[in-house]
Amino acid sequence: MDYESNKVLSDYLLMHYGEHDQRMPWSFGKLAALDFPAQTVSYFTQKRVALSLDLGCAVGASAFHLSKTSGKVIGLDLSHLFIDTANQLKENGEIDYRFQEEGRHHIAATAKIPEGSVAENVSFAQGDAMNLPDGFKGFDRVHAANLLCRLPDPMKLLDRLPSLLKQGGELVLATPFSWSEEFTPDENIPQGDSWEWLQGALENDFECIKHADEVFTIRDHVRKFQLGVSKVSQWRRL
Hints:
By secondary structure, the protein is of the alpha/beta class.
């Protein structure tokens, strides 16, 4: 997938900031009201904290949601285009874009940062989740949504997580475990059950507080959608 393309950018702007009837114009129950970036952040406790990190932040909606209860939020993503767009949103509060209706028919829309966000508390930077700066540590919260199975070496990130978080800090991971050699070499794809693999990788340093399956959609056009089910888990740093 080309995360620097304008089509992917518009798809993710729609996923992060679109109105419910834009994301899913068909009345199919819960699918019509999905807000996945907000849903994953809701797994954190609602207490106020000083410092949060959003890894694989894409165009930034979850980072803005984190700012409601965080004194400072750092959003990090590998895509220059995503980060440039998130920074424009931070500066202007909104950004115009177009999403595909069908064929060559596109619809104009405006992405706005979520109500209640504190934009001045959020900073966005381009970076690699597998090669984080040595100074990245002492976070109260770390959030990574649908990132793990897009990494060439997911264990490299999992091994780094304990040093990122304070003792007692909160970790929220979301992943559909949609492993593909397009992103992850075969030798780095877990063998067997992926959820058991993830629990085993974290159990020495983290306690799993809760986990559940959450549906997400990415709209390709008005009659075609990517539907996924992400395992979302909340952990406490031991």
